[in-house]
Amino acid sequence: MSTPPLQPTSAAEVQEAVRTHRHLLPRGGGSKPALSRPHEGQTVLDMSGLSGVLEYDPSEYVFVARAGTRLAEVEALLAQHGQYLPFDPPLVAQGATLGGTVAAGLSGPMRQRYGGLRDFILGVQFVDGEGQLVRGGGKVVKNAAGFDLPKLMVGSLGRLGILTEVAFKVFPAPKATATLLVNFPGLEAALEALYRLAGSPIELYALDLQPPGTLVLRLGGLPEALPARLERLQAFLGRGGEPLSGEAETAYWRSLNELNLGEGALVKVALTARRIPALEQALGQAPRRYLSAGHLLYLAWNAELKALDALLQAQGLSGLVLKGATHRPQIGIDLGQAMGHKVTKALDPQGKFAQEPYAAQD
Ligand SMILES: Cc1cc2nc3c(=O)[nH]c(=O)nc-3n(C[C@H](O)[C@H](O)[C@H](O)COP(=O)(O)OP(=O)(O)OC[C@H]3O[C@@H](n4cnc5c(N)ncnc54)[C@H](O)[C@@H]3O)c2cc1C
């Protein structure tokens, strides 16, 4: 029997919960339900009570916040100072939290410009499997503290500990943005343009592929410079495309941030652009979008997840189910991270956060 969720409001209460419960599963905003659905015997730790920005110095481009803080709150605060989270986390409107975003390792299209979540995380505080409060990294950009715990927590899916605080560096937001939707005759031509763009000095905030043949390109910078940069981009591609600006542009990206791609499960797959042609042949009709020059696929899968699991295995890819009915959100190939397993053993020797004992239930 699953027990009712606990709602800690301090790190000390998280420590107490870890000491007194056998199996725990942290839940942030519940925006990725496939990752926060408890298994039999797991107690949910609802982290929404551990919320609030603790430190923010716009002149230092750094903030520290409790892990249950909603991204929407952080983004609103940063926007007051013309700053933003350049890794562009998804699911903001659905209530995603900082901790859940770190644990799931999620970045959005604008990561193309400066990098993904793991390039911006500076420090973490978390409770390990023995109830100890652990700190890793710091809130300064230069940090020689040794083992990189903050980066290990990225994509750790709650296996290593319960995040209680995170520190991030932030960047100035672009003063203005513009988007160009460019249609190509098919996948091959679109990918050829994508490669050329990715290897060019043109600085894009987003370089997405909407299969089969549309590239979605986003520019950012000073408003007076954007029209000429847009023209240069069109000249580089030899195509005019459909420009989007102003409220239409903002609404376009806001809607994509919700990842409402279609019916069924929502799955994220890490890949490289060279894998796209084979994957495209196999995926059929599933609505999908490749972000960040083909490094990340978000996919709506409206059939058995077992079939997608097999498809990804055959392609040598690994996927993460964010929404959808499954007790085993990691599908496709097992990344078999020997180092990861050692770290898990060190931080959670009793297996309080482990998912493995439950895998057989599927
Ligand atoms: C202790 C521990 C154990 C884990 N065990 C597993 C496990 O058994 N199975 C599992 O699927 N995940 C496991 N993970 C999670 C996995 O490491 C992360 O989800 C993944 O590395 C994050 O990838 P991303 O694309 O979400 O990150 P992003 O920051 O979005 O990716 C950064 C870039 O790296 C690329 N990339 C990501 N992962 C790999 C990889 N493994 N090899 C090559 N390129 C990559 C992406 O394509 C992307 O271009 C574990 C994590 C930890 C901390």
Number of helices: 12
Task: Decide which structural class fits the backbone.
Answer: alpha+beta
Tell me the fraction of residues in β-strands, as a range.
25-35%
Widest sheet: strand ordering: 3-4-8-6-7
Sheet with the most strands? 5 strands, antiparallel
- Envelope shape: globular
Oligomer: single chain
Number of strands: 18
The parts where pLDDT drops under 50 for at least 5 residues are: 357-362
Order of helices and strands: HEHEEEHEHHEEHEEEHEEHEHEHEEHEEH
- Rounded to the nearest angstrom, the radius of gyration is 21 Å
Work out the helicity level. 25-40%
Distance between the termini: 17 Å
Bound molecules: flavin-adenine dinucleotide
Mean pLDDT: 93
Feature tags:
12 helices, globular, 25% strand, alpha+beta, 362 residues, 29% helix
Give an account of the 3D structure.
This protein has about 350 residues and is an alpha+beta fold. About 30% of the residues lie in helices and about 25% in strands. The chain is built from 12 helices and 18 strands. It has helices at about 10-20, 35, 70-80, 100-105, 110-115, 150-155, 185-200, 225-235, 245-255, 275-285, 305-315, 340-345; strands at about 25, 45, 55, 60-65, 85, 120-125, 135, 160-170, 170, 175-185, 205-210, 215-220, 240-245, 265-270, 290, 295-300, 320-325, 330. The strands form 5 sheets. It has a 5-stranded antiparallel sheet with strand order 3-4-8-6-7. Strands 15-16-14-17-18 form a 5-stranded antiparallel sheet. A 4-stranded antiparallel sheet has the order 11-12-10-13. The chain is globular, with a radius of gyration of 21 Å. The two termini are about 15 Å apart. Residues about 355-360 have low confidence and may be disordered. Flavin-adenine dinucleotide binds near residues 155, 270, 271, 318 and 343.
